[in-house]
Amino acid sequence: MSSRRIDHYLRALVSEDRFDFYAAVRDFADAEVAPHLLGWERDHVLIPDEVIAKMAELGLFGLPVPESFGGQGGDHLDLVLMGLALGYHSQCAAITPGAAVSLGIKPLLLCGNEAQKAAHLPDLAAGKRMFVFGLSEPGRGSDAANPQVTATRDGADWIIRGEKCWSTNAHWASHVVVHAMTDPEAPNGKRSTCFIVPMDAAGVHYQEMAGKRVWEQSSTGSIVFDSVRVGAADVLGEVGGGFKVMVTTLNGGRLFIAGLALASLAFALDRCCRYVQEREQFDDLPIGRFQRVQDVILDMDIALEQNLTWLMHCCDLYNADRLDREQAAKVKIASSRQASELLGAAMEICGGVAGLDEFGLIRHHNDLFVTRVGEGSNLALKSQCCRPLLGEIKNILQ
206 has which bridge partners? Predict the structure, then answer.
């Protein structure tokens, strides 16, 4: 395994035990993902089931699950470190267990009742089940607080109708957490409810979304609910509390997405550092001697160190239940934006070879787009982040 610049920073930012965990997942990715990744891409296949099974054996699906439910008893920092380790080679490899935990298990951990936890967490932690979060819809993206999928009462039951899309891991999911409108007349933030729905329930129809050119080895599904009946025991959290479930879930998910962006940036930095020392031009000397090439390399290194330090701090705040929504959004915005911009510059200094799949940069270039729109579009999140800021300025001026 070649040296990675990100390892240098992580050693100073996390404890020895945390770094050892990161290193174990890193070595797993080197052995089980990196050698096969190009073949998966060229064959247009999803992450193979046997690789997912090996991730489960490593305990990656049970990282934050309490040991009493068969998990590892870890926290959100462990999840982000896993994303950094797997995402270095492939965001798809990272998001498979990542979304299963941050979007699947986390809502149950944070908002589920004891009966729901006992029924699902052991199998989720073991990788025998997988929850998918049904949030985005064909007609709803940034306005996720007001879903078009509806759940109407029918006696003691609920009937769910509508369609969810962009649902990560739908191919492997055993259940979907559905965010549905239950009372459109209620105050904003109290209109929706989340439900745990089996994927094999009558009226649930899934298909993989066609034509996707990002996260190509990750499952992204469309799920239709054709008058699906669920009971009161399937409500996750409280009736009218769907917005709370969604916000609580996405807060941590944005930290994971920020980690994916930095994992791609870390790969680009290492790849370019090697290339500019090997590539010779003009008097048969390496192009790394040129100041403009060095500028790009250094800008990548600075962005990696700054955002990684910020991200680790946010993970500590999250674990202490002190992370504001705006903080999670800002680190996600900054990490994804800078990684995207700098990876484009890195591809320029490498030239045409950067467009070849075997070189690796084009994979991260494409996948970084998802980090800018996933878990909330950066443009929409900027508006959210500005609200308290402009409110504070208004109060100061008054």
Answer: 223
> pLDDT for 355-382, tens place per residue?
999 999 999 999 999 999 999 999 999 9
Residue entry with tokens 């700054």: 306
3-state DSSP assignment of residue 110 = helix
Q: Are residues 305 and 387 in the same domain?
A: yes
CB burial of 56-72 (b: ≥16 within 10 Å; e: otherwise) equals bebbbbbbbbeeebbbb
pLDDT in tens, 168-178: 999 999 999 99
Q: Which of 57, 305, 375, 392 is catalytic?
A: 375
**Closest Cα to residue 300, out of 356, 367, 252, 347?**
347
Cα torsion angle, 119, 124, 129, 130, sign: positive
At what angle are helices 49-57 and 16-32 packed, to 10 degrees? 160
The helix (H) or strand (E) run that includes residue 257 is helix 242-278
Take residue 19 and report the two structure tokens written for it: 């770094």
Number of folded domains in the chain? 3
**Distance between CA atoms of 365 and 325, rounded to whole angstroms?**
27
Predicted model pTM: 0.95
Active site residue 375: yes
Range of the domain at 154: 132-243
Q: How far apart are CA 257 and CA 46, in angstroms?
A: 20
Same domain flag for 251 and 367:
yes
- What CATH number should be reported for the domain holding residue 311? 1.20.140.10
